[in-house]
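User: Sequence in, structure out. Go.
Assistant: Echoing your sequence, followed by the structure tokens.
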Amino acid sequence: MKTNKPNIDPALVREIANLLSESDLTEIEVQHEDLRIRVVRAAPTVYATAPAPVAVAAPAPAAAPVSAPLAAAAPDDVSKHPGLVTSPMVGTAYLGPEPGAKYFVDVGSVVKEGQTLLIVEAMKTMNAIPAPRAGTVTRIIVENAQPVEYGEPLLIIE
């Protein structure tokens, strides 16, 4: 009894898998006549923990110029602030939607919960970082196009 399944060359499958590994792609599919090969790379699992709640809010710092982000502060200065927004991933933080565009927020901006604060590009994907709560942006800790690590302070909403 003859089957209609084409012979699949293991070297071809390995070559396609290597192409996937060498690029930022997560999936590739090749089809030629009756042969169809699909290789998918599983996304890494990210574990996140919520920071411990703090009962007393720190006093608001003096207002900075509205359009300029503040220089990066020492982690001890802001790490326990209740309004701290941290990066949920490793990537590059962008304060605006594209180069030269107006920033999503500035110091003094009043934001609503869910409003986009900035974006973090990770693996060629732009990830909007939403406001976890409503309030006023009192500090922008990162600079535009700055590389960020998981859990790194981005800005403060009071």
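User: And one key feature?
Assistant: Strands lie at 27-32, 35-40, 84-86, 91-94, 110-111, 116-122, 125-130, 135-140, 146-148, 153-157.
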